[in-house]
Amino acid sequence: MIYRVEKYLDGFSTCFRQWNAEHSHCRFLHGYAISFRLHFAAKSLDQHNWVWDFGWLKDKNHTIDGMTAKEWFHYMFDHTVVLSQKDPALETFKALEQQGLLQLRTLPYFSCEGIAEFVLNTLNPLVQQHSDNRVTLFRVDVMENNKNLGAVEVDYAH
C-alpha cells in the first residue's frame, strides 16, 4: 500500500522570462502569481498516522542554505525575478540587482517544468533525511496564475 498527501503553497509573486522563446511574447519579462503543489508518498504512516507532518516547512533543524523550507520558498519565489542561468541578458539583470532594483534568482533552466525539477531536487533530499527515508517527495506541480501547470514526477519506488 502507498499513502500519499499533498501540500499546496501559494502567494508568490514572481517575475521571469523565457529568453529562448523567440516566437512568443514569453521572451519578455512578465510576472505571475505562482503556486506549488508538493506530492509526498510513503509505504507506512508515522506515529501520528500521517505520511508527512507539514510542520517541516518551519523546522529549523532541517534547512536549505540556513533557511527553513518556508523561508526558502519566499526567498526564491516571492517578489523575485527568476531567470535561467543561460539567459544571455543575465549580466544586465545582475547589474539591476546591484542597483537595488530587483531580487535575482537563477535556475539551471527556466520553465514551470524547470522550476518544478529544481524544487524537487532541492527538497526531496531534505524530506528523505527528515523522515529517515520513509517519505519521498515524488512530484512537484508549479502553477502560473492557476491557468498553466508544469510538473515533474519521479517513479515512486521505495
From TrEMBL:
Domain of life: Bacteria
GO molecular function: 6-carboxytetrahydropterin synthase activity
Pathway given in the UniProt record: Purine metabolism; 7-cyano-7-deazaguanine biosynthesis
One Pfam family here: PTPS
InterPro entries (UniProt xref): 6-PTP_synth/QueD, 6-PTP_synth/QueD_sf
Reactions performed catalytically: 7,8-dihydroneopterin 3'-triphosphate + H2O = 6-carboxy-5,6,7,8-tetrahydropterin + triphosphate + acetaldehyde + 2 H(+)
SUPFAM superfamilies linked: Tetrahydrobiopterin biosynthesis enzymes-like (SSF55620)
EC number: 4.1.2.50
Similarity field: Belongs to the PTPS family. QueD subfamily.
Protein name, as recorded: 6-carboxy-5,6,7,8-tetrahydropterin synthase
Species for this entry: Cysteiniphilum litorale
Lineage start: Bacteria, Pseudomonadati, Pseudomonadota, Gammaproteobacteria, Thiotrichales
